[in-house]
Design goal:
single chain; about 400 residues; alpha+beta; Aminopeptidase; Alpha-Beta Plaits; 2 domains; 6-stranded mixed β-sheet; 11 helices; elongated; binds zinc ion; metal ion binding; metal-binding; Glutamate carboxypeptidase; Peptidase_M20
């Protein structure tokens, strides 16, 4: 094992160089060409180093509702599936996303060294660094004498940063065919693992009123923006009413000019949940508010959206896997623990599909989703060693980790 782990140490320089190259290709979720460029580069690297099977899939488009209720469609990049030894006793699913939150016209496009161990750049931590960690760990594992015990599938998906609308179905299907999941989201800023994660849902409220001239016939108008304002206040007041549930109005728009009573308005909001029963509570509360608004003459409110990601809770199978990860990290001299977080990721999706998983096996860095995102470069090697060790330990005891797959 020692020889395998020390072979990773020698990879620091090429890993850093590749990371800079990947980070400087813009792959904001809606930049389809950029996401595809990163996907092609990476899948070629995986195939060259791991000699694995490769499939490329188109995913469903992402749709958003405009204020007038019409749908705006965005084609997403492709999803890649790389796999090896599908008949081995233990099957591990590794996932990572190709997209970042930085759009094609973002000002944040280049990498910059903050010191000799710290690199700033778009997606260096979230999660192009993690994708390289995954590749490096698998490459080391493939040199071990235990390979026949463990087969693996890697999913590189194009849309995690918008909630994986296009890749959710493939993630759920693959989850059912594997025994456990390893996901390469960045570690929490203090280096620890994320344990429980909140669930999340995105919703759109569309308001229709009656247009009228602001001066001559104001009394005949029914103001859609005012109705929306009442809705927003009522939704905001749900915060604090149920433990662990938060509701955030993120976008609001409507109307076209000041001399007309606006007949259209739209707001978009996000809800975070702690346990799955929270979803029903939220739906009931929204329904009550909706009825109040709709009881106003001339006003109509329709609600769209759903809870895309259920909360991730840690059952016995998850806890056993977390235990293994912390044991391995202890052996490597950096003992890790796990903490709960309000953030969510594809780990929620895999848990919801019944697959125990650890979802913060990527690099250590910070300020993700901001223009000062950075990575602590030595974590590329450290985290690749951790994952290589996890794979080796899993392969030593395939029967312990097998579950009843579908
Ligand atoms: Zn991420």
């Amino acid at each position: 094992m020692d020889a395998l782990l020390s072979s990773i140490t020698e990879r620091q320089t090429p890993l850093t160089e590749t990371l800079v190259k990947l980070a400087q290709i813009n792959s904001g979720t809606l930049n389809r060409a950029g996401v595809n460029q990163v996907g092609e580069l990476l899948s070629k690297m995986f195939c060259a180093r791991l000699n694995c099977h490769h499939q490329q899939h188109a995913v469903a488009a992402s749709t958003q509702l405009r204020a007038d209720g019409s749908a705006e469609e965005h084609r997403l990049g492709d999803l890649h599936i790389l796999s090896k030894r599908p008949d081995a006793p233990l099957q591990v699913l590794l996932t990572g996303h190709l997209d970042t939150v930085f759009p094609a016209d973002s000002e944040f496009q280049r990498c910059q060294w903050l010191d000799d161990q710290t690199l700033q750049g778009p997606g260096v931590s979230d999660m192009k660094g993690g994708l390289l960690v995954m590749l490096e760990a698998l490459s080391a594992f493939e040199q071990s004498p235990l390979t026949q015990q463990l087969g693996w599938t890697v999913i590189l998906n194009p849309d995690e940063e918008i909630g994986s609308p296009g890749s959710a179905a493939i993630l759920a299907q693959q989850a059912q065919q594997h025994d456990l999941g390893l996901i390469y989201e960045p570690a929490l800023p203090n280096g620890q693992l994320a344990g429980e994660r909140k669930g999340s849902g995105n919703f759109t409220a569309l308001f229709t009123g009656v247009a009228a001239h602001a001066g001559r016939e104001h009394h005949l108008g029914r103001n859609a923006i005012c109705a929306m304002a009442e809705f927003i206040t009522a939704v905001d007041q749900l915060n604090g009413q149920r433990d662990g549930v938060t509701l955030n109005i993120g976008v609001a728009d409507g109307g076209e000019t000041t001399n007309q009573v606006p007949d259209q308005a739209r707001c978009r909001f996000n809800i975070r949940t702690r346990i799955s029963a929270d979803e029903q509570w939220c739906q009931q509360q929204l329904q009550i508010i909706q009825q109040q608004i709709n009881s106003k003459e001339g006003i109509s409110l329709t609600l769209h959206g759903s809870f895309g990601r259920p909360p991730k809770q840690l059952d016995q199978a998850h806890l056993a896997l977390f235990q293994l990860v912390t044991e391995c990290s202890g052996l490597l001299g950096v003992p890790l623990a796990w903490e709960s977080t309000g953030g969510c990721c594809d780990g929620n999706n895999l848990s919801a599909a019944g697959l125990p998983n650890v979802d913060t096996l990527g690099v250590q860095g910070g300020h993700i989703h901001s223009h000062s995102e950075f990575i602590r470069l030595p974590s590329l090697v450290e985290r690749a060693q951790l994952s290589a060790m996890i794979l080796l330990r899993l392969a030593e005891q395939p029967d312990t980790w097998r579950r009843n797959r579908m």
